Structures are given as C-alpha cells and as structure tokens.
Amino acid sequence: MGPVSARLGQPTNRKPPFKFSAFTRVGFSDTDAQGIVYYGRYLPYFDLARVEYERHLGLLDLEIGEEEFVMRSSSVLYEAPARFDDLLEVFVRTKRIGRTSMANEYRAIRVADDVLMCTAEHVLVLVSLGERCAVPIGEAYRESVAAFEGADLELSGPAT
Amino acid sequence: MGPVSARLGQPTNRKPPFKFSAFTRVGFSDTDAQGIVYYGRYLPYFDLARVEYERHLGLLDLEIGEEEFVMRSSSVLYEAPARFDDLLEVFVRTKRIGRTSMANEYRAIRVADDVLMCTAEHVLVLVSLGERCAVPIGEAYRESVAAFEGADLELSGPAT
Amino acid sequence: MGPVSARLGQPTNRKPPFKFSAFTRVGFSDTDAQGIVYYGRYLPYFDLARVEYERHLGLLDLEIGEEEFVMRSSSVLYEAPARFDDLLEVFVRTKRIGRTSMANEYRAIRVADDVLMCTAEHVLVLVSLGERCAVPIGEAYRESVAAFEGADLELSGPAT
Amino acid sequence: MGPVSARLGQPTNRKPPFKFSAFTRVGFSDTDAQGIVYYGRYLPYFDLARVEYERHLGLLDLEIGEEEFVMRSSSVLYEAPARFDDLLEVFVRTKRIGRTSMANEYRAIRVADDVLMCTAEHVLVLVSLGERCAVPIGEAYRESVAAFEGADLELSGPAT
Question: What's the complex ipTM?
Fold first, then answer.
C-alpha cells in the first residue's frame, strides 16, 4: 500500500492553465519565529510539485546523465502566510520552453479555504556537468512537456 | 480528493513494536554535496511521522494551549544513506511516558528495498509557555497514547 | 574578544551603490547533490546581511513591537554557483522606501575571485501583528535609512 | 580586510577540555513557530565549528579525495533555547580517534550570559567513496589532532 499512499501529485483541471498539482503539508521545521512559514521554505514545496510533475510525464529518469537543469532565476510573490500543519496544494506547469531553458510557474493554495499563499516563476537552464555551459534541451523532454501542456505552452520563447 | 491523497500516515503491524508509520520522499533540498541526505534533514522526517501519529490519535489539537513539548534530547543512529527521491517509511512510537516527559522512537526504512536508513530516540518535556518549566502531561494525552501503544509502552519511566 | 570576531558586517565603498556588506561562509548543509549551494539557501545569506545592516543603523531593536516586516516578493537571479566553504561577501542596500513597504537589493560575490554568485531584490511590507494589514513605516526608521543611503535611495516609490 | 573579519574560529582555554571554539549568530531562518531555534538547526552550527577547527589544524584540504567522513551517530542534549540574533560560541573538540572512526564533542553557549544551550557528540566514520566501507584514518590526520588535543584525546577507542 506504500506507493499508493505516497502518490502526492496528480493531473487537475481546477486552476487552468495549470494541469497538475501536488499536495504537501507545512512541517514544524518550515515555520519561523513570526509563527508562519519562512519565506524561503516554499521553494522545496515547488521542487516537490515539480518532481511529481516530471514523474507523471516520465521525465524524472530522463534528466539523469551528463546534463542537469540549474536555477537561473526564481521569483516568488507572497500573498498570504501559511502556518504549521496547513495542507497546501501546489500547482505547477511548464510555461515556456526555449532552446536551452524553460520557465516553470507555480501557485500554492491552502486546501482548507482555497486561499492563495504564493505564486512563483522559475527559469532553469540545462547545462553540461563539466563546463556548466548551456546545452539544448532534448526533443524527448520537449515533446513530453508539449503533449501534456498543449496550447498553453509557449514554445518560441527566447533561449537564455 | 485532496485530503485522501494527502494522508501520509497509517497504522501498521509490519515492524513491531511500532504500530504507526508515515511516508515521505527525499526532496532535492534534503541532499548535500556528498550526494546523500544531509544528516540533519532526517529530523523533519521524524517530525512529520510524529505529527501524523498525533493526528491519528486525536492529539494534535490537544497540544495547542499554554503548554508545549520541547526537545530535551535527540539521538540518531545512521545505518545507510538515503538519496534524492527515495521513498521512505518512517515508523514512530511512544516508547515511554513519564510524569512530564516522554520518549519517542523512530525507524526510517527505504521502501524500495526495506533497507534501514536510521533509528532515533527523542525525549520531549512538556513545559509551560511562560517560565518554560516542566509541567505534568495531562491524563487525556497519556490515556490516548497508552490505548494505542498497549503493553509496549513504558508508563513508569522516570520523569525528566 | 567574542564580539569583535563575530562582527560580520561593515560599511564598504567597493560596489556602489551598495554601502554595506557582510561576510558568510557556505556551510556543508547549504549544499545539495549537484555539489553546489541549493538555490533556496542564499535567502538566509541575504537575511544575515540585512540583520547586520539593521544592527549597524540601529534599526534592529526598533523593529520589535506590534509591527513587523513581512516578505511581499523575492526575486533572485543566479549567475554562478557557490560551493562548500566558499567565503561570500553579501552586499545589501535599501533601494526604495514607500509609505508601508521597502525594496532591499542584494549582491553576493565570492571573495576569492570576486565572481558574482547572485543578485536579489526583496520587497517587504510593514504589517500589524494582529490583522496583518499594512501600516506606515515610522519616521525614525525611514530617516535612519535615508541618512545612510543618501541620494541612492528612492523615497517616492509607490506604497505596496 | 575580508578574511580577517570572516575568521570565526579560534583556540580558547575558557572551557576545558575544549581548546577551540567558533562564533555564530542565530539567523531568522533558524527559528521556528515556538519562537526559538528549531532543534535540528543546531547541527549546522556544530558543522561550522568543526570546519573552522579543521581549517585551524590544516585538515580541511586533507579530507578531499577518495574518502570522506560520514555521520554514524549524532546525540544532542538541549539545555536552554536560543533565540533569533543570539550570538553563540560553539566549542568543539575531538574526543576520541579509533582506527576508522572518531568522536567529536560540542558545547554551545550563549555569549551574552554564558548560558549553556546544548551539548552534542557526533561519531563519524571514514569511508571510501565507492563502496562506502570503513577505511583507516590516515596518520597525518591522526597526528594533527593528537598534537592539538594532547592528553585529553582518547586514542585507543574501539574502531566503529
């Protein structure tokens, strides 16, 4: 029963253009002395949603190799504070894929009252492990994302 | 469907004397430059299992008030290293309840191969929020734990 | 000798318009399995620089009371990856003060080779602790910042 | 002036048998909703003290290679809670060196009032990077530690 209970991500149509979301709970170690979630602790929530998204699209194993995505920019807009034990639903989508980079968008809401906690956009660049210079994103990755995101995906974005 | 997918803890009889476990996945932010989970990052996994344990026993709300449990000691024994995206099952039990303190025991295994990652014991003391001095653990808390843990619970441990 | 060794922040004129910087070292727990600093772990470095900046301006105690600054937005641009034990110099400045919000700018460089690791901008809003609604930033705070930042500070920015 | 300001560790004779300590400040991200330092966040403080200790003894570079120390056990005893911006002095010593393992002891005090926050003992094992099996600690490492710790070091401890 383990794997079933542990499936935290799933397709969804509740918040278009998002098509996927994952659940996570605010742990005690995520809070700070203001009694709310420390602003930097939302980033692992976004990571978790992205991992489940990639697992669903069969992209998790594709990434392992001589190349890896590295963070180029991260922008978070905080709307309301989450607190200990809040159940959050984190929506994730690929907004744009360029030649060597992609932009991921996030939206975290509190399940209990559907209140928006924060939104975010991450730009990642695929780099070679050695010289860490930008390399083209493979067609398999690009096609899997395009098939899932459909018309909402910007394919002609400028490469970073 | 949210609440169902997000239920991470459940009773279990696979690793007695443990009677409860929770699932968690190793996030990328939990790893360090050795390529394995940073030794301090298992502590939030233990917290997560304990929170689900307390939720199952109806103790989560009981805690909120003028008193709170604070960590008195934490001992972790590391057996094997977990890695990014490993699914872990964290077993948790109350081993002993004294007058003002309790000892919780943990056991984290990797689901894929049932290999033991680490074991831990935490001693917590109930303190008043103001002066932070030890106060007796209430009967309701004690009885809920005793009913769930049964004969495996040491009730006559020395108070800290 | 403690306080002297522990003074991590100081005024500087090496990277105008920044006028203050603080030093920090990359700890092992800041790294991830890519062998570099996890992208979210730069945020505590920015916090550290800001705390030393506020200490230098006599603003640290001023904050404690019925109001507190909360994060409204955080944008980080990653230029190069820091690694374990890198000594970083984090430049910090107040870029703009509006009626209830302010924008802080950061720039982290590696001391060994003066290479830029990342830049960031945080917008914070002063809120009341109860209802968490925006309240005006006090004149004492505003004047201390204006005296230190001089002509580089935008005072007429739109309130958030 | 950078390197000087950033030197956080130094020999000391204030708390024998400790002979070395390092300073660190409690960052905001180290606190939790109890208003105190999260119990797991002392571990990076211990790491920091250990890194400065190894730097002082010329052991930091010695470690890099085909072998690395991994955590075998970590025990922390919490005496009093540290809070945001507390300046801590973390004493560190090698208590014992066996054939393939060593025990490090820590003691964190608050500088302002010399109050003990916590003590800890870590046992580390030197392992080969590939198979991760225990390998003997080199003579150079052992001799540097023995020269610094003197008679307080247990050399004949049982190998883990």
Answer: 0.92
